[in-house]
Amino acid sequence: MRVAITADHNGVAMKERLVAELGMRGHEVDDRAAHVGSEVVDYPPLCEDVCRQVVSGAADFAIVVGGSGSGEAMCCNKIRGIRAALCLDLWVTEVARANNDANVLVTGAKAIAPDYAVLILDRWLSTQFRGERHAERLAQIEKLERGESLLP
Length: 152
Known about the structure:
Layout: E1 2-7, H1 12-24, E2 28-31, H2 43-56, E3 61-66, H3 70-76, E4 84-86, H4 90-98, E5 104-108, H5 114-126, H6 133-145
Parallel strand pairs: 1-2, 1-3, 3-5, 4-5
Helix pairs in contact: 1-5, 2-3, 4-5
C-alpha cells in the first residue's frame, strides 16, 4: 500500500514511529513532512499536501499527526474526495474504515500514546470497507461535496 504521511511540530516523534511501523509491514511510505523537531509549522498546508496525494491516486491513503488531530481532520475534510477520520480509539478507527471508507487517518500525539497509535494503525490497515448500505451513505456524502442538497 502507498501511504502519504505528515505531521506538525506536535506530531513529529509519533509520525517517525508510524513511518517505521509502516516500513516494517512492507508499505511504500511517502514522508511529506519537511520539518523536524519543535519548529512550529501550520498544519493546513501539510493536510492539503497529503490529501492531494490521495485524491490524485499517488497514495492509497494518508496519515496526519497533530497535537489533538481535531483541526487537522477539519482541514482534510475540506478537500473534495477526502474522508478523514479523527482516530483516537480502536472502535472509531474500525468504524471509520468499515462504515465510512475513510481514506485519511488523523490522530493526535497529545491525545494518545505512541504504542496506542501503532494499535490504531494496525486496526486501520486490517479493516476493510463493508460496502452495501454504507456505500449509499458515501454517495450521499459525495452529493453534499458537489453542493447538492439531500433534503426533500
